[in-house]
């Protein structure tokens, strides 16, 4: 029997009335009966009072159990917060109650009301539906089905079971019939049975309770079925009818999508914008569509913002979004970010058409921007052709590929890439020839002459694909041969270059004559040298060049060798006028020529000019000696003595000081001052023991003592010298040594070595022991037997024989440097710098001081060496750059960064060298440290644009660039640079650690 439903107000009213009634005098049974009547009338408040009063006096256990059931039922109906606890307590108290199934149903219903659907399912399934009232059976079925729908909605089999449950309710139910019909339709929708769901939702459209939702899901189904016109019709009607509905955010989404697919992007933009602004987490696909609409509408900044939110997963949508991101950045003229977006799309393979378009755009941007310089500028086009050989862009890519080969700075990567091509075109071969030439110049700039010669030779051997590169390769191969002292090969290449080049007015063409002149000059072919130097001065247009002034010096030297003294003087004058700052050699040679022409006073004036105007010149000691000799010729003994004494006191290590000492003795002897003559000769002997001048002085001293008639004193003096000077050379000693020396001079090093060793064995203190030690040391040095050579050179130095002092000191320093004993080498190079008269040794000494001091962290000595090298106008460009690099590093170590700027700016102009590349980075770092981010970025932009084969320093530059963005508060851009560097840099060094540390901080 169905229970009669009583309105809640009536129930409440009855309860209030009953509450006023006194039950003080009723019997317990009467209270139970009244309570049950009120319970059946659903007057739960009234029945609770009666039943509680009954229980206070009752003794019948069955009636008490029944009363407790009605009480917990009433608590459920009243919606008490603790109803489930009361119901569960009842079951624990009365486990065998006939009301168990009803109570379990009620507990499940409590959890249902609390939306705790797993517990609701549990308790509802505990109850037996057949033992419930028909009304409760319908509620039971609906609540169980709904709870299962909430919990099992992703299980197709369960959904089908749940649908059947709702379907039965729909067929036989009363209260939940329409609700069940709605959920049947929903489950069909969820299972993809859209046509069936459409019919079911349509049947509910007149039901006010389900009209909106049915219409909403109908619109959703039309959208899923791509029936965009019907979506738009239904969606617009729903928005008009329910302007504040919770469904509207989703309606904006599907309307925007539908208008987009209908080609109405303005309306799509309107609705998608509303959707994105209202949705807590907009769908990536809709952010993508909104981005497309914004892009097509010209709003590229907003498009970038939307596409940037799409690329969070690795899928086809992200690939498409990256392609649009690249196009958007291009429209905003942000080529760096465009390049990285295209790169991301190109490295994804979900959609090959998108990949192709992205890779093509990426390649073009690499070509235009040379963004990183880590090899991709050459290889990207080849990768494209390998991946998409039949692409519509293939012809354009081939053309660009040739252009990339010609413009890239990472020629090594370009060459490796070209050599992978099985059938290169003529354009590619043209590019390859030019790349080989460029690699040769890189090797030359880095002073790798053998490597440079090999690369230039390969370029030459390719033929005439690129005539200019082939012609220039002859010039630079000639330069390489010249630096190695292979003058014959250098002459051949310079002459071939002159015959082949079409560029007759260039600096290089002019220099080829200058270099040819030097090749002949080094070989003492003075007539040929004279002709070439004159040709050079005829074609050289830069008359302020150091080489132009030097050429006139060499012309003067050639004329001097031909004894055309007046003409030689004229050219020396020209040289000093052209470059006064480096005119010391010209002035000295002019004075020397004047002396040969017997213009002694003119010679003295010229030598004084040299001493006065060039106080640091390497020719000062020469000038003093020649000046002293000239005074001797003028019979001005006092002036000669004064000049020679100045030379000896100021330049005691010079070989001319020894000669001056002998000259002093001779002057005193000729002036009949034997005591002073003897004193002068003895000074030479004691100061320079073992030298040729000491031997001469000892012979001349004998004449002085003969004139003094004091041979005994001479003998005593000679005996006091011990074995330092050999006056009487044993014939066998002499013959044995001469035989060994002849073998050495003929180039028979093995024979010479055996003979020299035999000589020293027989004559360990022989007259030629120093010579023998020097030659043996030289042989060992050439064989790189440094452990054997070093002690012999040291023995030569200790002997006091000045004949081989300079060369032995030079070789000792070189051995110490090569064996990385930089501390000892530094001191030896300093000694060499003091005694060296050979310009090459003088330069080697300064270079050694600079390099060793740098290794030892001795910044002051490093500066000294660098400054000395840079004062030499003839120093090679490579050494000059190294000196500027060392000087800049020294200044930075000493905290004098401002002094380093000029050098860094100069050497950073050529990033082909490791020093130039490092200087570029250091220059940017100095600006960064000074908080001058604008100039730091400018330097880094130049670095990235020009490129370098020295990838480490370019990578350091990119890390610094990221640091700049971090300091600017732009971590996104910083991460872009770091990610790009992490992907493209191939070096095995500390760059990876630097990248990871910064990325970690950014996270």
From TrEMBL:
Span of the signal peptide: none
Domain Outer membrane lipoprotein BamD-like: 28-150
Annotated TPR repeat ranges: 249-282, 433-466, 510-543, 549-582, 621-654, 658-691
Pfam families recorded: ANAPC3, TPR_16, TPR_6, YfiO
Record carries keyword Signal: yes
Alphabetic keyword roster: Signal, TPR repeat
Origin superkingdom: Bacteria
Protein name in the entry: Tetratricopeptide repeat protein
């Amino acid at each position: 029997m169905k229970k009669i439903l009583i309105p809640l107000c009536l129930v409440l009213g009855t309860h209030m009335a009953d509450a006023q009634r006194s039950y003080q005098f009723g019997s317990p049974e009467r209270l139970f009966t009244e309570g049950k009547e009120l319970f059946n009338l659903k007057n739960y408040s009234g029945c609770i009072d009666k039943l509680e009063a009954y229980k206070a006096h009752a003794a019948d256990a069955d009636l008490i159990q029944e009363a407790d059931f009605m009480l917990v039922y009433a608590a459920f109906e009243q919606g008490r917060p603790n109803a489930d606890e009361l119901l569960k307590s009842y079951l624990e108290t009365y486990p065998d109650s006939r009301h168990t199934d009803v109570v379990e149903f009620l507990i499940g219903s409590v959890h249902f009301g609390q939306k705790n659907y797993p517990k609701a399912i549990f308790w509802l399934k505990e109850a037996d539906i057949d033992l419930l009232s028909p009304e409760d059976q319908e509620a039971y079925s609906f609540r169980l089905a709904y709870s299962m729908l909430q919990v099992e909605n992703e299980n197709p089999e369960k959904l089908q079971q749940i649908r059947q449950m709702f379907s039965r309710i729909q067929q036989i139910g009363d209260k939940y019939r329409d609700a069940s019909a709605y959920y049947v339709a929903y489950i069909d929708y969820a299972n993809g049975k859209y046509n069936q769901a459409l019919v079911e939702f349509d049947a509910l459209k007149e039901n006010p309770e389900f009209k909106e939702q049915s219409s909403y899901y109908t619109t959703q189904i039309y959208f899923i079925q791509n029936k965009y016109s019907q979506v738009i019709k239904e969606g617009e009607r729903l928005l008009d009818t329910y302007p504040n509905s919770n469904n509207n955010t989703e309606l904006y989404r599907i309307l925007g999508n539908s208008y987009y697919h209908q080609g109405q992007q303005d309306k799509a933009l309107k609705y998608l914008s509303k959707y994105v602004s209202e949705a807590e987490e907009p769908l990536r696909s809709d952010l993508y569509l909104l981005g497309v609409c914004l892009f097509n509408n010209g709003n590229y900044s907003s498009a970038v913002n939307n596409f940037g939110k799409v690329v969070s997963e690795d899928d086809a949508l992200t690939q498409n979004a990256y392609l649009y991101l690249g196009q958007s950045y291009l429209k905003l003229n942000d080529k760096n970010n465009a390049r990285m977006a295209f790169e991301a799309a190109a490295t994804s393979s979900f959609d090959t058409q998108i990949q192709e378009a992205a890779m093509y755009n990426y390649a073009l941007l690499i070509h235009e921007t040379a963004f990183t310089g880590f090899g991709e500028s050459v290889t990207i086009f080849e990768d494209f052709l390998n991946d998409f050989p039949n692409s519509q862009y293939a012809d354009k890519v081939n053309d660009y590929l040739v252009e990339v080969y010609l413009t890239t700075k990472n020629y090594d990567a370009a060459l490796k890439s070209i050599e992978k091509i099985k059938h290169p075109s003529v354009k590619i071969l043209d590019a390859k020839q030019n790349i080989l030439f460029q690699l040769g110049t890189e090797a030359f700039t880095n002073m790798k002459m053998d490597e440079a010669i090999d690369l230039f030779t390969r370029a030459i051997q390719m033929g005439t694909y690129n005539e200019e590169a082939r012609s220039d390769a002859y010039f630079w191969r000639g330069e390489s041969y010249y630096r190695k002292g292979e003058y014959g090969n250098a002459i051949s290449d310079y002459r071939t270059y002159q015959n082949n080049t079409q560029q007759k007015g260039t600096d290089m063409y002019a220099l080829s004559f200058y270099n040819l002149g030097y090749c002949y000059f080094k070989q003492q072919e003075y007539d040929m040298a004279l002709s070439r130097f004159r040709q050079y001065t005829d074609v050289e247009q830069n008359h302020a060049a150091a080489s132009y002034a030097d050429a006139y010096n060499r012309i003067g030297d050639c004329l001097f060798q031909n004894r055309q003294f007046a003409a030689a003087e004229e050219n020396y004058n020209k040289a000093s006028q052209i470059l006064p700052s480096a005119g010391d050699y010209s002035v000295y040679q002019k004075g020397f020529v004047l002396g040969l022409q017997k213009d002694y006073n003119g010679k003295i004036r010229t030598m004084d000019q040299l001493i006065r105007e060039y106080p640091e010149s390497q020719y000062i000691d020469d000038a003093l000696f020649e000046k002293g000799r000239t005074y001797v010729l003028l019979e001005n003994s006092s002036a000669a003595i004064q000049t020679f004494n100045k030379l000896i006191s100021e330049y005691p290590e010079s070989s001319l000081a020894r000669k001056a000492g002998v000259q002093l003795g001779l002057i005193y002897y000729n002036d009949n001052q034997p005591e002073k003559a003897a004193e002068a000769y003895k000074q030479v002997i004691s100061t320079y023991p073992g030298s040729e001048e000491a031997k001469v002085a000892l012979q001349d001293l004998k004449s002085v003592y003969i004139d003094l008639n004091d041979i005994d004193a001479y003998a005593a003096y000679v005996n006091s010298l011990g074995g330092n000077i050999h006056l009487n050379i044993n014939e066998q000693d002499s013959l044995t040594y001469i035989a060994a020396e002849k073998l050495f001079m003929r180039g028979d090093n093995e024979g010479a070595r055996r003979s020299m060793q035999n000589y020293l064995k027989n004559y360990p203190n022989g007259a030629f022991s120093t010579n023998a030690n020097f030659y043996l040391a030289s042989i060992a040095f050439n064989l790189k037997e440094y452990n054997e050579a070093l002690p012999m050179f040291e023995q030569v130095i200790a002997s006091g024989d000045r004949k081989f002092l300079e060369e032995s000191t030079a070789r000792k320093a070189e051995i110490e440097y090569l064996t990385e004993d930089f501390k000892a080498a530094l001191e030896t190079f300093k000694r060499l710098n003091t005694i060296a008269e050979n310009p090459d040794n003088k330069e080697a000494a300064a270079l050694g001081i600079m390099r060793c001091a740098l290794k030892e962290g001795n910044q002051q000595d490093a500066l000294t060496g660098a400054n000395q090298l840079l004062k030499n106008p003839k120093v090679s460009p490579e050494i000059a750059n190294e000196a500027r690099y060392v000087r800049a590093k020294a200044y930075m170590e000493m905290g004098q960064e401002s002094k380093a700027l000029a050098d860094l700016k100069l050497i950073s102009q050529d990033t082909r060298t490791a020093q130039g590349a490092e200087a570029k980075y250091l220059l940017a770092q100095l600006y960064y440290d000074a908080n001058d981010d604008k100039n730091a970025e400018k330097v880094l932009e130049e670095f990235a644009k020009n490129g370098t084969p020295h990838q480490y320093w370019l990578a350091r530059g990119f890390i610094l660039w990221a640091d700049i963005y971090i300091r600017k508060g732009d971590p996104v851009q910083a991460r872009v640079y770091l990610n790009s560097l992490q992907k493209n840099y191939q070096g095995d060094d500390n760059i990876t650690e630097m990248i990871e540390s910064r990325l970690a901080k950014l996270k």
